[in-house]
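TL;DR need structure tokens for one chain.
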Amino acid sequence: MLECSICGGTQFSSREILWDELIAAWGLSREEVEYINRQQGCFCVACRANLRVVALGEAVRDALGVEGPMTAWTADPRLAGLRVLDVNGATAISNALSHLPGYVRGNFPEVNMEALPYPAAAFDLVVHSDTLEHVPHPLRGLEECRRVLRPGGHLCFTIPVVVGRLTRSRDGLPPSWHGNSSQNSDDYLVQTEYGADMWTQVMRAGFTRVTLHQVSYPAAIAITAWTPPARN
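>> reply
TL;DR here they are.
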């Protein structure tokens, strides 16, 4: 049975998310439309976390070595010293993490992911959700996430992944937006379409370990990246 990693709920509902314009721009097959709709549109009735956020919650839980729903363990006093940077997270997971005393929220694009305004080694955990695809130079964004992490700290994030393809830049292609297509805000402009090789960018950014977490494969995949601290 599917269980929400954020609140522990077990009741889920679904709605279609993709629209014809985006389906055509990405050239999505019927199968791809089906699992991307589940990724974004299947959500926990209790806290509204969709499958990608549930996957992200599982990634965070695994990175921190905790158990149970996030709304329970974020109240644990043993985590009071945890320093968390949430770069444009998702509502359900951000609401839960915000109960930690060391929580910092930095909203993209007001906070530039290519030049994060935080000192090196400032955080134990960096989280972002479906944001990197909108960053003009995503490799630089990942490098900045690594810079602000302490040695051994973890980056947990999601990006929309079309698993049967390879990653490509949208440079030279017609503009494509996520979110409300009628707004066509640059905040939603897609810079990169991610495929099955998305983990290579993480390695190029200097991380040495990558773990993938899936929920209802291939609908929702979350990525954890870290570099173990050097041994003395």
